[in-house]
Specification:
heterodimer, A: about 200 residues, alpha+beta, prostaphopain b, domain 1, 8-stranded mixed sheet, B: alpha+beta, 8-stranded antiparallel sheet, 4 helices, about 25% helix, about 25% strand
């Protein structure tokens, strides 16, 4: 079940209207501005607190929390090329606060195809983001599985498990993420303070 | 399972007439830790500075040598090399030194700016109004830099900033509400380098 099935029509209309104002300025910066823009799928975004991975492995609880944000796929001329984040305001309206043109939208689109063709049941799905690591995955709630959508190469070069397109049991995902982040952050601590990547 | 949804048309308004800032093109980072080198590359290539020395791997090599992180004899080119010797972070002090090495005057400022977000927004606007790009440093679990190059304001007064995010994994060009530029979730703006060249 995709999250957008539960969205009332006014929510979708709200998001589309805001994107209609935000996208034209952003598209001016593109080498090939699209002729047609459309709103695709919407997903609740949950975030993994990467500072709590070790604790999570000990307790056996999956360390994801709802962000209260929604991720929206955006199609340029029929292809998923961009995405947006919105949040519900206390007034009840939905505010789009970030729109980005990135290959991640294409990877999410490809993962949607896989979910539709490979998952036979009616599992609920949310978009998982590992905070600060640029790791995106779909979390299949009832199956306790994740489908990895996008993983930076700093992980994929060394980890056999953290590969985009791979299904993992949710705690196996946390274990692999923990190992890789320990490696990256450990490496950072060898460097001087306040470094950028 | 049915995740795929029927696309809904987005009716585009006219682009905001009220906008400013320099022209800048996105460069994606060639290695996981080279956001800082990709930002320098964007500016050097925009202003055609240091031709022959402005490839990202050359910039990374220079920065890491300035910081003493790699040996003077080490090489970071080509970027496609699997060697991890040069896949290293660069401390903020040496980000400033790297700009200066390339003869790019910068005005560094270190926050966090969360105690007066409006002042930070005004400062960014003032930089962009002089057509100066601004390198923005964010801190989260892992720190990162992006290049701010544009502001735009809707007729209703809504202000947005546009920046190029070099990656990793996938570079992006993002448009963000001005009230999210200083603080967004756990991410906090904690450093800026105003590039004092007008583009």
């Amino acid at each position: 079940m995709a999250v957008d099935e539960t969205n009332p029509n006014d929510f979708i209309r709200d998001v589309r209207e805001q994107l209609g104002r935000i996208l034209p300025g952003l598209c001016l910066e593109l080498k090939e501005p699209p002729q047609k823009t459309e709103l695709g799928e919407s997903f609740d975004v949950w975030e993994i607190d990467t500072s709590k991975l070790r604790q999570s492995l000990h307790s056996g609880t999956f360390p994801a929390l709802p962000t209260h944000y929604q991720h929206h796929q955006i199609l340029f001329d029929g292809r998923a090329r961009a995405s947006a984040l919105s949040e519900k305001l206390p007034s009840g309206s939905q505010k789009v606060f970030k729109v980005g043109v990135s290959d991640v939208a294409t990877r999410i689109d490809q993962a949607i195809d896989r979910l539709d063709s490979e998952v036979g049941d009616d599992s609920s799905v949310v978009l998982l983001k590992a905070r600060a690591c640029w790791v995106y995955a779909f979390w299949l709630l009832e199956r306790h599985q994740v489908l990895l959508v996008s993983v930076p190469s700093r992980f994929t070069q060394l980890s056999e498990q953290l590969q985009a397109g791979k299904y993992l049991q949710e705690m196996d995902f946390i274990g692999a993420l923990h190992d890789e982040i320990e490696r990256v952050v450990g490496r950072r601590n060898e460097d001087l303070a306040t470094s950028r990547l | 399972m049915t995740v795929r949804a029927t696309p809904q048309p987005i009716t585009a308004a006219a682009p905001p007439a009220n906008r400013g800032g320099p022209t800048l093109e996105l460069e994606q980072q060639d290695k996981n830790t080279w956001c800082w080198a990709a930002c320098v590359e964007m500016v050097l290539k925009r202003f055609s500075l240091s031709p022959g020395e402005n490839e990202q791997c050359q910039i990374a090599e220079k920065g890491l040598k300035l910081a003493g992180i790699i040996a003077d004899t080490a090489s970071c080119c080509p970027a496609s090399s699997n060697s991890s010797v040069c896949n290293r972070l660069l401390p903020d002090k040496f980000v400033t030194d790297l700009w200066e090495h390339y003869g790019v005057p910068v005005r560094p400022d270190f926050g966090p700016f969360i105690f007066d977000e409006q002042a930070a927004v005004e400062k960014l606007l003032a930089s962009l109004d002089q057509n100066h790009p601004v390198e923005l440093g964010f801190t989260d679990d892992i720190s990162h830099v992006v290049m701010l190059f544009r502001w735009e304001r809707d007729p209703d007064g809504t202000l947005r900033f546009l920046y190029h995010n070099p990656g990793p994994g996938s570079g992006s060009t993002d448009s963000v509400s001005s009230d999210r530029i200083v603080r967004s979730g756990s991410r906090i703006l904690d450093a800026t380098w105003e590039i004092l060249i007008a583009g």
